[in-house]
Write a structure and sequence with these properties.
InterPro entries: GAF-like_dom_sf (IPR029016), HrcA (IPR002571), HrcA_C (IPR021153), WH-like_DNA-bd_sf (IPR036388), WH_DNA-bd_sf (IPR036390), WHTH_transcript_rep_HrcA_IDD (IPR023120). This protein has 13 helices and ten strands. The chain has helices at about 5-20, 25-30, 40-50, 65-75, 85-95, 105-120, 170-185, 195-205, 210-225, 235-240, 245-255, 255-265, 315-349, and strands at about 55, 65, 120-125, 135-145, 145-155, 160-165, 230-235, 270-275, 285-295, 300-310.
Length: about 350
């Protein structure tokens, strides 16, 4: 494709992103400083339409980019803006202030900060806990037939679940359960808690099986939640987006499973996904700019800026790239600090 054609496509997409309106040849000529005649631009636009990169509206003579055209623009044409040094310094200060935080806190704080800076809605996944090891399980009575289960992992993360039983547990039953689960689950990775593994543990409880199996199921439920968390930040930013109806906003916020699968497919680098390309996500005029972050050399989660298809990709991509790199550094720094503390403890013995 000739450079002139790509320049025309870029001008059309840039104007569409700015206004959301169909773009005509006269405006593109002005954008190109009248270096190309309107007639030539119309011919180029017609060719781009034949190739599937533009579409013609019925209400005007202008053109709109198709999803194919947007993808060509993103992957081959546009040059992402450079993140200003003052913006980088502002982001650096945010991460300087979350030193000593848990992995969950680092990801949560970064998601909120990214939403505040970009004025967009942010969806994030946290798979750090998938590789965590269970360090302690405890059960605490809180009322008549009410018990709270606590699960603590090697990452320092704590989750709880309230369990309502149809009977009160004796001290002997609670002591047995606490000793049993810690003997059998301490040191086990969360992702090792398969149905088969849990069935074996349930059978191993013997006479306590019927009484205590609801608590064991709660442990499994907590571990499943910790392995894959999907969170939204800056949801209010969607409300100011005129491209979405209230029904579409509700669909986006309720579509965690679909968004989770989108983010699961994100590995190194920036990934762009359009709602129209998904068979399950109902909001076809949406898009997601996603990037993953790592811990110890393996994927620990992903960020996604979600909004209409006419997101400002040039502006937003540098932000999400920088945030994902900072989260990777923060998660790794936390792990380095733990190793140093362990070495100090070993030296003091």
């Amino acid at each position: 494709m000739e450079n002139r054609t790509l320049r025309i496509l870029e001008a059309i997409v840039d104007e569409y992103i700015r206004t959301g309106e169909a773009v005509g040849s006269k405006l593109i000529a002005e954008k190109l400083d009248n270096a190309v005649s309107s007639a030539t631009i119309r011919n180029e636009m017609a060719a781009l339409e034949q190739q599937g990169y533009l579409e013609h509206t019925h209400t005007s003579s202008g053109r709109l980019p198709t999803y194919q055209g947007l993808r060509l623009y993103i992957e081959k044409v546009m040059s992402p803006a450079q993140l200003p040094d003052e913006e980088k310094e502002e982001i650096d200060r945010i991460f300087d202030n979350i030193g000593g935080a848990t992995d969950d806190e680092i990801i949560d704080n970064a998601s909120r900060a990214l939403a505040d800076i970009t004025k967009c809605a942010i969806v994030s996944t946290n798979t750090v806990n998938k590789f965590s090891v269970i360090t302690k399980v405890d059960v605490i009575p809180t009322g008549k037939r009410m018990y709270v289960l606590l699960l603590i992992t090697s990452e320092g993360n704590i989750r709880n679940r309230v369990c309502r039983l149809s009977f009160d547990l004796t001290n002997e039953q609670m002591d047995f359960f606490t000793q049993f689960v810690n003997e059998n689950l301490k040191g086990v990775n969360l992702d090792e808690l398969s149905d088969e593994y849990i069935d074996k543990l349930t059978q191993a409880m013997g006479g306590y099986m019927m009484t205590l199996s609801p608590l064991l199921k709660a442990v499994v439920d907590i571990s499943a939640e910790m392995q894959q968390q999907v969170e939204f930040s800056g949801e209010k930013n969607l409300l100011t987006c005129s491209d979405f109806s209230n029904t579409q906003i509700a669909t986006i916020l309720d579509g965690k499973n679909e968004l989770c699968s989108w983010l699961d497919d994100t590995f190194s680098g920036i990934q762009i996904k359009f709602g129209a390309e998904s068979d399950t996500f109902a909001v076809t005029n949406s898009s997601l700019i996603a990037a993953s972050f790592n811990k110890d050399g393996r994927k620990a989660g992903s960020f996604g800026v979600i909004g209409p298809v006419r997101l400002d990709y040039k502006k937003l991509i540098p932000y999400i790239e920088y945030f994902s790199s900072k989260v990777t550094d923060a998660l790794s720094a936390g792990n380095d600090e733990e190793e140093k503390n362990e070495e100090k403890e070993a030296d003091s013995v």
